[in-house]
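To illustrate this point, we now present one chain and its tokenised fold:
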Amino acid sequence: LYPQDCGRPETGIAAIPCFERQTGIIGGTSAGEYLPRYVQEMPDQDALWSMYEAGDPIVRLDPASLPDGAVVEVAEYGLTSARLLIRSPEPFRAIYRAFYFPGWRVAVNGQNRPIVVTAPHGLISFDVPAGEAAVQVWFGTTPLRLGSALLSVTTLLLVLWLGWHGRREAGFAPASELAAARWWQWLLLIALAGGLLWIKIALIDTGGTRVRQERFDGQTLHQVDMPLGVNFGDELTLLGYNLPRQSVPAGQSLSIELFWAARGHPSADYAFSVRLVDEQGLEWSPKGTRRPGGFHELPNTPSWQPGEYARDVHLLDVLPGTPPGRYALRVTAFERETMTGLDVLNDQGIAIGQSANVATLTVARPDPFPDPKDLDIAYRLDAPLGELTLLGLSPGRVQIAPGDPLHLTTFWRAERPPRGIYTVNAELIDSLGRPAAVMSFLPGAPQHATNRWQTGEVIRDQQTWVMPRDLPPGEYTIRFQARDGEGELHGPVWLRERKIEVLVPERQTDVPEMAHEIGANFGGRAMLLGYDLLPASPRPGQTLYLTLYWRAEQEMDRSYKVFAHLLDSTGRVRVQHDAAPANWTRPTTGWLAGEIITDPHSLILESDTPPGEYLLQVGLYDPETNIRLPLLNATGQAIDNRVVLGSISVEP
């Protein structure tokens, strides 16, 4: 009758762990709701995979838990049982690779033994004595299960008895009595149906009862850990979030639920991200967004309707070695196609940045400490500095210019409790052995200075090292020295495997010729003298070449980015190019007062760009806070945070 369009998929016991590995859906759910409450972290999913794939009996006894010299002479495994004969020269704790549920039993040499649930994996473990031990493991019942089964059987017997007894007691009645009984039965049935319908329409559907309550009334979301109302660009509202726990050990993951609603009809498709940041704005979670297994992407935001809300779940990974302390969860919303961030607006509609710190999270000390092999260390050193070992470092890049910020990540291990708070000097040493730049920092501080470190603790430290503006060109070596809390100097330690190359740009002070002169003053720090633009009337698919001419009004200690945006008639950004000046080669921290910087930008129009009039706007912003520099008038008053260069006509 019905055609079979698709063949029946081949499945089996091995397909179940394969599916769970591929999708992250454990036991049929993406959040692992059916896992025992003892499971805080999933064990190695590859350990038993080969046995599942081969169809062999699953060896549940973990060989890694056996001491040297121990031998398993007999091993018989069933689906929920095992019989083992073990000879061991010493007592040990065996790990049975199955999640513990109430009902599991273990007997050793005929005597019941207590089960110890392992942390954080929630597996079964038990103590085995030295010598010969006959071990039995099986899954039995519990008083709760036994009582439930007896109750179910009792209920079934009662129903059968009532049915049999009712048929036996049935008799005959006159027709007139039967008709009257039917009339009252129909009347009661109609009254009951009408009453239930009234209760549904008048009470339940209105959300005024505990049976059904509207979670979102169009303004406020109920039943959420932390209700918010963050306005993202008058396009979306962050209604609130659920955070299952306020603390997470370094190196582990945390799930966070965000709830969004549209403020009208969004004009673009937006995506969202969550980052873990410290007080300096440094990120302690990997780039990108990770979802729980089985969580599908949200519908495109232009399809969202007012009065609806969306549930947005993220898995936040805390970098291994993150210093214990308090951090912020930073949420951003950005256009999926152009990566343009939405401004966060305050109650007055004024932009206060492009991200919102919505929650505080405590990062705890992990147990055990991470293995240095599992850290993303670019260059291993393993060099002692007092009670500390400098395991290695990862410089953000090895070619820099004067004024450039060098992101330096160092990795440390305490070999014994440090003597007080260590101060580390990182020096850039030239070819003649002279220090050309110095940065001092406290590893792990301010969250977790060395006086709090424990023996064996591994700490990741991040620093932003801004190069001097007058740094000469050449190759440099990084040298580290450390001074402990008692003033004793340790080191030096050299990074000889990799040189840092400093490239000094050619500086310009003469004002070049330009097609359009402006004189736009941004915060008293930079003056946009003018620009060149070709072609004047581009076509869809062509590239708009924009060259900006900046003059440094003062030296800057922040590296600002330049944004160049092409806006359509609705104010939406259709094309953009955001970058550090001069194609990332001239950060503003390297500008000298009075210097002229030539800053090219390429804006590529999509082939389906609609013809019409567009506005070209440019400006400067701090990438750490996403706050733009104000545009000042002749009296020094802020009048905007951008300058509109003019109207661009896109020809058909």
